[in-house]
């Protein structure tokens, strides 16, 4: 099972996230490596739902700067200032930000012009500090809701409990 890449389009979200998290944890069993986890999560989340862009921005200067990490999709911008764009807002406020329509989010940073909606989830490390954000873009308006927030926040708890 661990070698598969699940396609969960059409599966109700709570069930989809349940399957996805179980799969991610099975693939990562015995691994304590943040980069391997970010790469694995990006690939599996991206292909499970057919998203436009799925990946991580890592905190490289706490409170100041995020830099791109493992991702799937077209070229992502390299660095984002904390407080800027959707990613920087989620990092500054340490909360999940859901943007149903990117045109309504002042300061949204466009990496791929096809992006229409977005969710950014903060990632907390073992020591309790923010270590990254998980950013997902969709080419449809209104893709993400509270069920995505719950499912993704649960998946990234891996970094609080299992990371290096
Ligand atoms: N849209 C994001 C920038 C990152 S890309 O979407 C990959 C933002 O506003 O923070």
Bound molecules: methionine sulfoxide
> What's the alpha carbon Rg, rounded to whole Å?
15 Å
Query: How many separate helices?
Result: 5
The helix fraction, in percent, is 25-40%
Give a short account of the largest sheet. 6 strands, antiparallel
Secondary structure class reads alpha+beta
Could you name the ranges where pLDDT drops below 50 across 5 or more consecutive residues? none
Can you write the helix and strand succession as a string? HHEEEHEEEHH
Shape: globular
Share in β-strands: 15-25%
How many E strands?
6
How far apart the termini lie comes to 25 Å
The neighbouring-strand order within the major sheet is 3-2-1-6-5-4
Q: Give the integer mean of the pLDDT values.
A: 95
Notes on the structure:
The chain has a six-stranded antiparallel beta sheet, with helices on both faces. By secondary structure, the protein is of the alpha+beta class. The radius of gyration is 15 Å and the shape is globular. A hairpin with a 6-residue loop joins strand 2 and strand 3. Helix 1 packs parallel to helix 4. It is 33% helix and 24% strand. The protein is built from five helices and six strands. The model has no long low-confidence stretch (mean pLDDT 95).
């Amino acid at each position: 099972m661990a070698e598969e890449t699940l396609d969960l389009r059409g599966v109700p979200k709570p069930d989809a996230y349940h399957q996805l998290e179980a799969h991610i944890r099975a693939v990562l069993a015995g691994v304590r490596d943040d980069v391997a986890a970010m790469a694995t999560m990006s690939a599996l989340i991206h292909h499970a739902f057919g998203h436009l862009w799925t990946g991580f921005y890592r905190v490289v200067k706490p409170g100041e700067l995020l830099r791109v990490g493992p991702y799937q999709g077209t070229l992502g911008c390299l660095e984002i200032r904390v407080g800027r764009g959707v990613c920087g807002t989620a990092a500054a406020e340490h909360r999940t930000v859901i943007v149903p329509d990117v045109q309504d989010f002042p300061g949204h940073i466009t990496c791929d012009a096809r992006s229409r909606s977005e969710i950014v989830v903060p990632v907390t490390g073992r020591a309790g500090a923010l270590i990254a954000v998980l950013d997902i873009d969709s080419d449809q308006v209104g893709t993400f809701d509270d069920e995505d927030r719950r499912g993704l926040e649960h998946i990234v708890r891996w970094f609080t409990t299992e990371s290096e």
